[in-house]
Amino acid sequence: MKFEAPAHWTTDFLHHGIFDDLNALFNLTQFSNWPTLDWLNSLAINITNRNNQQISFVANDDVDWQHGYYEEIIFDKGEIPTRLENWHDLFGAFIWLLFPKTKALLNQLHIEQINKHGKTERSKKRNAITLLDECGVLVVCDQAQADLLKNHLWLEGFFNQREQWHSTIYPFMFGHANYEMATRPYLGLTGKALYITVEHQLMPKCLKDRYAWLDSYLENLIENEDILCDNSSLFPLPLLGVPNWYEQNKEKAFYENTDYFRPKRRKLK
């Protein structure tokens, strides 16, 4: 199917639970029109990149593209090129605000890969960085839960443990492309899960503090354990299956659609 985000500003999609965190943290229902760059920048005043440059969201048409490539502009000048009235870039800005340390690290890693391989050749590491950036979902859970989902045991991992989600199993959207596509959710909408297996007691109770904790934890995980050397740490996750993220997943029959909740392929011997 060909996906098209809403053509105009709307908050009609906010009833989908997948947006609950975003709305709680940024109060999107307050807006009758697109949030401005000034408003976004007022929230970014304490964010710097790994090159000690203050981060700011700059209208795409005002960017000096002669200076360099998208990631280079962010690293060298701290300017994040942002298309106005554009869902993809708006959600991208929100992810910068929620995960500033991790986003700054990913930007630095892009630069390192560009310096090593050039702008046209995309290494396995750079592909993994991009996949997390666009489609990533962070799932904080124990190893047993992670194993269920990694092995595509969707009924067991989603429906049978429904009450555990958001209490001992915590999903966090990281990929801004996921948010864009969820404005018009469709069966087939799938992200790439990075499972963070820690005790759920470590999770702060305050939502804002949870994101700050996770940002620091993820930054350390990526930088010191090199989990993005390739795509092997990222697993498919049907986003509409996450309990409370989509109204129709309250019924068991929803998870029996194997065109969406696909069983794991067996490796050929």
Automatic annotation (TrEMBL):
Record InterPro entries: DUF3025 (IPR021390)
Organism per entry: Pseudoalteromonas spongiae
Protein name: DUF3025 domain-containing protein
Domain of life: Bacteria
